[in-house]
Specification:
The complex is a heterodimer of chains A (about 350) and B (about 350). With about 350 residues, chain A is α/β, with parallel strands linked by helices. Chain A has eleven helices and seven strands. Chain A has a five-stranded parallel β-sheet with strand order 1-2-3-7-6, sandwiched between helices. A two-stranded antiparallel ribbon of chain A has the order 4-5. Classes of the chains: A alpha/beta (about 350), B alpha/beta (about 350).
Chain lengths: ~350, ~350
């Protein structure tokens, strides 16, 4: 499955032509994954959910346009926890997110150690996701610096929410990516869903367009309706080409929805905000690109795939308590101080 | 003999010419200054950053994720506190990704008192550094150890915090760094930038330095002894040696002084053997005494040497004040000095079994 996605992803990037059917399918796939994982918090298959339903229209084009691979010749992704659709578009098998949600030893991201949607995939330059808000914006200049020196057209992509842009790390990112004569090839994204858990953006911000802050650093910036996959695709093609070619940063703010609240801590119930998947589906039916029956069938197909993934993950082992120290250090655990035996 | 600052420079030169270091960076680390303590003078890969500690730590972290071997500096450890969540992330990155993303970065920072540094140039960082799992932490006290441990830190595939005692930074060692000229004046002419004149055209002339390193995790017995074990590191190492000498000369009490050199992972074998041998233990450092790294050492050694102990183990550390005051009258009594160390050694040695 991942090979099919991999070649589709390469094809999309090379042609810069949007295959609307493919984008719709991947959006539906990512949505089915998230909806299954939300249900897992209620079926005793997972403790906590946080994720990205509502960001698919932007994230699927982004995932398809990422130059996927390992090392500085390829793109680095520093993601926040609403990025599942990026990974799905890059080719992530659904079960690899489900395994993390279900804390299985087979979870390839973290071996059952981290929350769901905290991805880590070395062979795709997806650096470990963290729950700490905005820290990825301080780390991302490092991979971009390695790429600036390496040459080629690999870029660093960093994303996070509107609320996180209040952290100093966002200013760090703008500052370090725009040092005169030492600009960095970075796509600096703001996924503006207008919320920080329960706090509306406008209640704590005097600024209205976050990306405009980049202007003070001489960084080009723009905004896009992140609920519109066509607009998102076009904008991403344009700005990623700029960053790849000019080796300079670009700051892009995408306006998106948050369809299930912050996380399972607030119930993860569906809220009334524009739904990019529904809107795009309707649009494709009206334009006679897909039929209503095909839409239904696509959704059913991915709901089944997500459910099958869960059934499979349930059969897989949980991590063994004896492994808690594994990988603390590369090259093995030091002999001192003596380690506590895991409590039993 | 080289100074501690020159030793750092020599090791970083080896790093950038032979060990793949592509970036040595921090505030005022690059030319013309080469670091506020001159530790990075003349290095080909040294550059100045914005005044932004989070950017320094984050960028080093990102470079390491991309497979490079950066060495970053926080100008004084007093200014590292706003990076602690990044330090935690760097420490958990290999673990949380099941070994996919090791973080081979070195973060160096001067620590401790001794330069009349007042409230924000006198902090210690050992307790907090050792409280961040996933990091190795070294704190050498001599130029040779500094040189060898920096090379080991650069080679290590894990994040290594390289702390160094600012009080000793101008001290010349008694052991020669392999390859350094016999005459310290010759070394100075080769690698010290001219003072007060333009450095635009100045370039260092580096000595040939053969391969050498001191493994992380090995302590050093500075002075063998029979009657008590003194564990210490950083600024207080030479003070403990002097106090031990005085104690031996005046009262025939023989203290074994161990320079821990690496705080994590520390040399359990050496400190265990010494404590079992002497049955008496004093830990000396200058961090504030509450939740002090020495308390951990005492706990572990008590658990493992309980039936060998002849006296209660003792910690001599910094006063639990919010800072070290500027006046010498304040600094003198805030962190251990020679007399207090001597008195503590004597007390531990004389306590009846």
């Amino acid at each position: 499955m991942s090979d099919v996605h991999g070649s589709a992803q390469v094809q999309a990037r090379r042609s810069a032509q949007m295959d609307v059917r493919q984008v719709y399918r991947l959006m539906a796939k990512a949505r089915a994954l998230e909806e299954r994982m939300i249900r897992m918090t209620r079926s005793n298959d997972g403790y906590f959910w946080i994720g990205g339903p509502g960001e698919e229209a932007f994230n699927v084009p982004l995932g398809l346009l990422i130059k996927r691979g390992q090392g500085p010749a390829f793109d680095y992704l520093h993601h926040h926890y609403r990025s599942s659709a990026i990974l799905v578009a890059m080719g992530l098998p659904l079960i690899d997110a489900i395994r993390q949600m279900a804390q299985r030893a087979t979870d390839p991201n973290s071996g059952g150690r981290n929350f769901v949607n905290h991805f880590a995939k070395r062979e795709w330059n997806v650096v470990p996701g963290a729950s700490t808000i905005e820290t990825q914006y301080s780390i991302a200049p490092g991979t971009a610096l390695a790429q600036a020196r390496h040459g080629g057209n690999g870029i660093t992509i960093v994303n996070g929410g509107d609320a996180g842009s209040s952290e100093g790390d966002f200013a760090t990112c703008l500052n370090w990516s725009s040092r005169p004569g030492r600009e960095l090839p970075m796509l600096i994204l703001i996924m503006n869903n207008n919320w920080g858990i329960s706090t509306p953006f406008e209640s704590v911000h005097g600024d209205r367009i976050i990306a405009r802050r980049a202007e003070a650093f001489g960084i080009r910036w723009g905004t896009v309706n992140g609920n519109d996959p066509v607009a998102s695709w076009r904008k991403l093609v344009e700005v990623m080409a700029y960053v790849r070619k000019e080796r300079k940063p670009y700051c892009l703010e995408a306006y998106v929805s948050r369809l299930h609240g912050h996380s399972s801590s607030s119930g993860a119930g569906r809220v009334q905000e524009p739904d990019c998947l529904e809107m795009f589906g309707r649009d494709l039916v009206e334009r006679e690109i897909l039929t209503a029956a095909e839409i239904e069938s696509i959704q059913a197909e991915y709901e089944r795939e997500a459910m099958d993934a869960l059934l499979q993950a349930r059969q897989e082992p949980e991590p063994d308590g004896d492994t808690i120290y594994d990988h603390t250090f590369a090259g093995g655990t030091p002999g001192w101080p003596p380690l506590h035996k895991p409590f039993v | 003999m080289a100074t501690l600052a020159q030793a750092i420079r020599l090791a970083l030169h080896v790093g950038e010419t032979r060990l793949g270091v592509t970036d040595v960076f921090g505030e005022d680390v690059g030319p013309p200054l080469g670091g506020v303590f001159t530790c990075t003078q003349g290095l080909a890969t040294a550059w100045n950053t914005p005044l932004d500690e989070r950017g320094i730590v984050g960028t080093a972290f990102g470079l390491a994720l991309a497979g490079e071997r950066p060495v970053a500096e926080i100008q004084f450890c007093d200014y590292i506190y706003n990076t602690i969540d990044l330090l935690k992330l760097a420490g958990n990155c290999c673990w949380s990704s099941m070994g996919q993303f090791p973080v081979p970065m070195v973060l160096m920072s001067p620590v401790g008192s001794g330069i009349h540094g007042s409230i924000y140039h006198s902090h210690s960082f050992d307790a907090i550094a050792t409280h961040i799992p996933g990091w190795k932490v070294v704190l050498p006290s001599t130029p040779l150890d500094t040189y060898g441990l920096m090379i080991a830190a650069i080679k290590d595939p894990n994040p290594v915090m390289f702390l160094y005692p600012k009080a000793l930074i101008r001290h010349q060692g008694t052991e020669k760094i392999p390859g350094e000229p016999d005459d310290p004046k010759v070394l100075s002419r080769m690698i010290d930038a001219p003072v007060g004149s333009s450095r635009e055209h100045w370039r260092p002339s580096w000595p040939d330095l053969p391969d050498f390193e001191i493994p992380i995790g090995s302590a050093k017995c500075c002075r063998p002894g029979e009657h008590l074990t003194v564990l210490t590191y950083g600024r207080t190492v030479p003070l403990c040696e002097q106090a031990a000498q005085k104690l031996f000369e005046q009262e025939g009490i023989s203290a074994e002084v161990i320079d821990l050199r690496t705080l994590f992972p520390y040399d359990g074998e050496m400190i265990l053997a010494s404590t079992r041998k002497t049955g008496r233990l004093l830990v000396v450092n200058e961090d504030t005494e509450v939740t002090n790294f020495g308390e951990h050492l005492i706990r572990v050694l008590t658990e493992h040497c309980f039936y060998h102990l002849q006296a209660p183990p003792r910690l001599l550390a910094g006063a639990n004040t919010p800072g070290v005051g500027l006046s010498w009258n304040l600094e003198r009594v805030s962190v251990p000095q020679l007399d207090a160390i001597h008195a503590a050694m004597r007390e531990v040695a004389m306590t009846e079994a």
